[in-house]
Amino acid sequence: MLSKLGIFVLAFGLITACNQKSENESKTADLVYVNWAEGIAYTNLAKVVLEDKMGYEVEITSAGVGPAYTAVANGDADAFMETWLPTLHADYVDQFQEDIIDLGTVYKGTQSGLVVPTYVEVDKISELNSVADKFDGEITGIDAGAGIMKTTSEVIEDYNLDYELVQSSGPAMTSALKKAYENEEPIVVTGWKPHWMFGSFDLKFLKQDEDMMKWKTGSIHIMGRKDLREDTPELATFLSNMHLTDAELSDLMVQINKSDKPEQEVAKEWLANNEDVVADWIPEKEMQAGM
To answer: What is the dihedral of CA 13, 19, 25, 28, to 10 degrees?
Structure first.
């Protein structure tokens, strides 16, 4: 028969094991992003930091903008990594405001609009109709549900442009841009900053008329499910702490774009050379545990 001390030790061991199991099981994160260059870059970086520095198991999923908000609002995902405010995603934030929380900005200084190579002799949106034949009357767009597609449709109407907005995807748009750029052919695309294409090609945003300013500078926010802070405060704090400067994010995006390696592997390499960048992202207790 077990002694009282033996029973106590056994019971303590079982309790400790259960607590450890419960703690380990809770160290998971489900993050949703859009297949855009900047989101791909810093979401993979977040996965690497959470797994390698904080012991999480992380699932990252690419989705359209609408499904991404729906997944977070329904509690099927922990966070959507790419909310563009104050303009592009304002309608989505209004629609789901009761079921999501703003965890803060991951990047400040966004810019969106119509983009052309600098060799194109057009500087304003209002000048596009005069050269519509050179562009075959097309604006190369991205995903149908993206905010920039909606605002571009509004711009076409506001400026009475004789152009068709062609739906594609982020990668398809940059592929078309690259091909046209290498041949110095005219092309106009839906573009945005931050993006690696501005570090790879000489590009410019077409200027808007002052009385028809559709696109304004802003920030990229991370939106979490409404109960994230209560359920997993550590994860919520980490996501709130995430921030990259323009130089840091541009460097990460360029490294990923020019490499043939998987994005996560490039993110690991970038992290190894930029430990100081992510040090402040990690909640204090995790930093102390790693000391």
So the answer is: -130
Q: Which of 81, 116, 85 is nearest to 216 (CA)?
A: 85
**Residue located via tokens 């939106």:** 223
Which residue has 């297949």 as its token pair? Answer: 35
Integer Cα distance of 269 and 262 in angstroms = 11
Pairwise CA distance, residues 284 & 71, whole Å: 29
Q: Which two tokens stand for residue 258?
A: 């020019």
How many contiguous H segments (helices) and E segments (strands) does the chain have? 13, 9
Q: What sign for the dihedral angle of Cα 62, 66, 67, 71?
A: positive
How much is the pTM? 0.76
- pLDDT, one tens digit per residue, over 206-262 is 999 999 999 989 999 999 999 999 999 999 999 999 999 999 999 999 999 999 999
- Burial level of 99, CB count in 10 A (0-12/13-18/19+)? middle
Which helix or strand (DSSP H or E) is residue 177 part of? helix 170-182
Bridge partner list, 138: 164
Q: Contact, 97 vs 215, CB < 8 A? A: no
